[in-house]
C-alpha cells in the first residue's frame, strides 16, 4: 500500500540497470546497496560520469523492479539516474520500495521538485556549482523543503566552485539544516587541496571521495 492506496505494480518506468555494489557516497558510504538506475536526465553536467543513462534503457514494471530488488537479499536501496524524478512514476516506485520495508535513498540533481518524495526516503540533493555548467538549473525552492534526514551534495571542479559553495552554505545556513557533502570531481580536483580549503575555513561539511571509483575505477554498474 502507498498512501492508503494499492500500488500499481504494472506501472512502467524506463530502467537502465539494477545492480549491487557498495554505496560510494553520502552518509551511507560503504553499505552494501541495491542501485536502481532510471534512464533519462534533462541536465548535462560537464563532469557527468553516467552519460550512458541519458538514453536507451528498457521499460520495466514497478512489480518487476520490486521483485528484482528484493531478490538480492539487501535491504538498502538507492534510486538514482540520470535524473530519476524526470519520470513521474519514480514517486510511486520510491513509496513502493519503502512499503516493502526497505531503507531507501534518492539521488537527485536538485533541478526538479522534491516536495512530493515520500517522507520515508532520504533525499540526496545536488547543488550545482558553476563548474558543472548547470548552475542555472538549481531549484532553490527545494531548500525550503529540507528535512534533517536529507543531504545536500556539492561536487566541485576547482577553487571557484569551492568559494561559490562556501558562500551559499553560509548565506543559507545550510549546515544547520541538514548534512552537507562536498566532493572533488574525480581526476580533476586534487582531494588534498579540497581538504586544505575545508580545514582552513573550518567549513562544517563532510568531505567525501567516490569510494567505488577508488576500488573499481570507472566501470559501469559499480
3D structure, described in words:
- The chain has helices at residues 62-71, 90-99, 159-171, 191-201, 211-216, and strands at 12-22, 32-38, 58-61, 76-80, 103-108, 122-127, 151-156, 179-184, 206-207.
- The radius of gyration is 17 Å and the shape is globular.
- It is 23% helix and 24% strand.
- Helix 3 (159-171) links the parallel strand 7 (151-156) and strand 8 (179-184).
- The model has no long low-confidence stretch (mean pLDDT 93).
- The two termini are 31 Å apart.
- The chain has a single domain, classed as Alpha-Beta Barrel (TIM Barrel).
Summarize the structure.
The protein has about 220 residues and is α/β, with parallel strands linked by helices. It has five helices and nine strands; from the N terminus they run E-E-E-H-E-H-E-E-E-H-E-H-E-H.
Number of strands: 9
CATH class: Alpha Beta
CATH level-four homologous superfamily name: Aldolase class I
Biggest sheet statistics = 9 strands, mixed
Low-confidence blocks of residues: none
State the end-to-end distance.
Answer: 31 Å
Computed structural class: alpha/beta
Helical residues, percent: 10-25%
CATH architecture: Alpha-Beta Barrel
Helical run tally: 5
**How much beta, percentage-wise?**
15-25%
Order of helices and strands: EEEHEHEEEHEHEH
Q: Count the domains.
A: 1
Q: What is the average of the pLDDT values?
A: 93
Rg measurement, Å: 17 Å
Shape verdict: globular
Amino acid at each position: 500500500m502507498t498512501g492508503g492506496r494499492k500500488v500499481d505494480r504494472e506501472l512502467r518506468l524506463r530502467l537502465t540497470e539494477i545492480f549491487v555494489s557498495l554505496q560510494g557516497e553520502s552518509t551511507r558510504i560503504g553499505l552494501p546497496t541495491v542501485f536502481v538506475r532510471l534512464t533519462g536526465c534533462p541536465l548535462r553536467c560537464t563532469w557527468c560520469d553516467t552519460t550512458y543513462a541519458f538514453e536507451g534503457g528498457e521499460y520495466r514494471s514497478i512489480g518487476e523492479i520490486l521483485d528484482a530488488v528484493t531478490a538480492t537479499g539487501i535491504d538498502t536501496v538507492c534510486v538514482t539516474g540520470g535524473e530519476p524524478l524526470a519520470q513521474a512514476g519514480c514517486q510511486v516506485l520510491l513509496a513502493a520500495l519503502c512499503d516493502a520495508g526497505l531503507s531507501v535513498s534518492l539521488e537527485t540533481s536538485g533541478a526538479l521538485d522534491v516536495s512530493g518524495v515520500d517522507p520515508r526516503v532520504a533525499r540526496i540533493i545536488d547543488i550545482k556549482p558553476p563548474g558543472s555548467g548547470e548552475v542555472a538549473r538549481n531549484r532553490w525552492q527545494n531548500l525550503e523543503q529540507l528535512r534533517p534526514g536529507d543531504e545536500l551534495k556539492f561536487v566541485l571542479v576547482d577553487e571557484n566552485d569551492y568559494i561559490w559553495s562556501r558562500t551559499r552554505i553560509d548565506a543559507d545556513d545550510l549546515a544547520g539544516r541538514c548534512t552537507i557533502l562536498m566532493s572533488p570531481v574525480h581526476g580533476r580536483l586534487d582531494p588534498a587541496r579540497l581538504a586544505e580549503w575545508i580545514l582552513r575555513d573550518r567549513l562544517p561539511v563532510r568531505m567525501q571521495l567516490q569510494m567505488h571509483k577508488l576500488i573499481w575505477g570507472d566501470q559501469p554498474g559499480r
